[in-house]
Amino acid sequence: MSKDTVTIGLIQMSVGTDTSANLEKAVKRIREAAKKGAEIVCLPELFRSEYFCKEEETEKFKLAETIPGETTEALSKIAKELGVVVIAGIFEKRARGLYHNSAVIIDADGSIAGKYRKMHIPDDPHFYEKFYFSPGDLGFKACQTRYGKVGILICWDQWYPEAARLTALLGAQIIFYPTAIGWLSGEETSSKDMEYAWETIQRSHGIANGVFIASVNRVGMEGNMRFWGSSFVSGPFGETLAKAGKDEEILIAKCDMDRIDDTRHNWPFLRDRRIDAYKGIASRFLEDE
Amino acid sequence: MSKDTVTIGLIQMSVGTDTSANLEKAVKRIREAAKKGAEIVCLPELFRSEYFCKEEETEKFKLAETIPGETTEALSKIAKELGVVVIAGIFEKRARGLYHNSAVIIDADGSIAGKYRKMHIPDDPHFYEKFYFSPGDLGFKACQTRYGKVGILICWDQWYPEAARLTALLGAQIIFYPTAIGWLSGEETSSKDMEYAWETIQRSHGIANGVFIASVNRVGMEGNMRFWGSSFVSGPFGETLAKAGKDEEILIAKCDMDRIDDTRHNWPFLRDRRIDAYKGIASRFLEDE
User: Fold this and answer.
1) If you placed Cys at A80, which of A30, A72, A110, B231 could pair as Cys (CB 3.0 to 4.6 Å)?
2) Interface touch B193/A239, C-beta < 8 Å
3) What is the 8-class DSSP label of residue B201?
4) Distances B218 to A128, B181, B228, B240 between C-alpha atoms, Å
5) What is the pTM of this model?
6) What residues does B144 pair with on adjacent strands?
7) Distant-in-sequence, close-in-space partners of B109: CB < 8 Å, separation ≥ 6
8) Is B42 part of the annotated catalytic residue set?
9) Integer Cα distance of B64 and A220 in angstroms
10) Residue B215: its H or E element
């Protein structure tokens, strides 16, 4: 059912204060990506607005919307028109006073094929997400689309091998990471190491699981924060298929799904997992037990 | 009880057909490493002999020995004399016809502080380990030594995030990877990618868990296989602290244990693990369930 070769398009974009303009820009970029051959297009995390979590302000809850809602309607329309799959980060209003940092997968016929709610919620200076988002309660997901079975994880999830492993065990062949990660002004030097670590750990998930990784970040300056872009697609060996710079860009990568079989044949990591010995993974810590 | 700064010495060595000479060389190198300030010294996987798993030959079981046995006696003696911790890979004979690919931690007083039996056993062309070794039944381990709490994982374990995670949750602050990995002659080109993946995934375990990684490989040509060396020590941010070339070398790295707190304060990954949602990790596969 899935295709042998899948072309990914990552929309590395900047975002402004006008949320309607952001949506319009996203739709325009999806059109451009499709023209370049993209079959699965992914937008960054929370692409409808500036990254509001750098402060804790109840006012910002107004940015949230339902799923389905305005954003999914617009994206369903363009997905159907172009026959592409669209993945997009959405600030989800689930109920009065209950919010999630979510992402949807819209299939190439315009239907919502899947929804993921960010499972790991960060909270550190300038990334006060625990104030805004309840941790996801849908678990990890892999979703069959017209062009392949894909998983979504969101930003902070990047740091958790468990998240990638579970998504791959569910059958995802490409894991998408919509992201909003940046440097504070003046921190660029120490942040080189951050960017290195960020890329290394995501590639490693591809290697451990023999899957493709597609990570898409926003760019541009918002207040004193510069989002570093550097979106990339890596293969099941961790190899680079495509990598963006620090400016707006549509990143296109062709992924040969047979590479997954080849890699897993030569490095049969999934075969040798010691599933009898992993119970402790579900513990917070083991040293003190 | 643990020290704030720990100096690691990795013995990247070649190995010949004379098993006594290999042990003598190892002891000599431990002495040299101690002279350079090393407090915890690690030898490669199965350092007593050439890498015999490239064929399946019952004759090779003669290379196995008990723990304690000849190797641990010699290493205990030098560990005690120099006041260093020694980690070493041993082909363990557990009973008649029952063998493990093991490693011991000998404390600085010469006592055996811990033993680990390789949990993930590879089997692919030229690495027929499933013929020789029963999978480990001791689980994952972290072991308090005079200079710090350390974990050992062996070679193929490198590819499993679960192994590193469990070892870190048990309190290990440095994870050692005694290793024997190489290229077949003529495969060097495609194998560049292998070496890249090998290093990337190990560094990623350091990042995910906020611990130091110390990986030590053998070097030299054995039959048609060239072991690629490239031993390294990386920090809790994935950063390189020391990296060896392709020849014999004693690699020394000073590790500041407070870096673990610093890294985990800034990137509190352990805080946010979704231990309520990881049960599936103990499954072989989930797509078909």
Assistant:
1) A110
2) yes
3) H
4) 46, 8, 7, 19
5) 0.97
6) B149
7) B79, B80, B146
8) no
9) 60
10) strand B212-217
User: Please, which residues have CB within 8 angstroms of residue A34's CB and are 6 or more apart in sequence?
Assistant: A9, A41, A82, A83, A84
Q: Is B188 a catalytic residue?
A: no
| Element containing residue B8 per DSSP (H, E) | strand B5-12
Q: In the Cβ-directed half-sphere of A141, how many Cα atoms lie within 13 Å?
A: 23
Separation CA A249–CA A123 (nearest Å): 29
Chain A CA closest to residue B276: A282
Decide: residue B27, CB within 10 A, 0-12 exposed, 13-18 middle, 19+ buried: middle
Domain locations in chain A as residue ranges:
5-269
Active-site residue, from B42, B53, B143, B155: B155
Quick one: tokens of B227? 């072991």
Instruction: Say what the pLDDT of residue B189 is.
Output: 62
- Strand A232-234: give its sheet, edge to edge: A142-145, A148-152, A174-179, A212-217, A232-234, A240-243
Q: Which residues of A touch B203 (CB under 8 A)?
A: 200, 204
The fold adopted by the segment(s) B5-269 is: Nitrilase/N-carbamoyl-D-aminoacid amidohydrolase (3.60.110)
Q: What is the Cα–Cα distance from B200 to B171, expressed in whole angstroms?
A: 23
- For tokens 């009065």, what's the residue? A96
Mutate to test the interface with A, among B129, B204, B232 (most CBs of A within 10 A): B204
Distance from CA of A146 to the nearest CA of B (A): 17
Instruction: Locate B259 and state its tokens.
Output: 């870096």
Mean pLDDT, 10 residues at a time, chain B of 289 residues: 87 98 98 98 98 97 98 98 98 98 98 98 95 98 97 98 98 98 79 89 98 98 95 96 97 97 95 98 92
Of A201, A208, A281, the CB nearest to B159: A208
Task: Identify each DSSP E strand in chain A by its residue range.
Answer: 5-12, 40-42, 85-95, 98-106, 112-117, 142-145, 148-152, 174-179, 182-184, 212-217, 219-222, 225-228, 232-234, 240-243, 249-256
ipTM comes to: 0.96
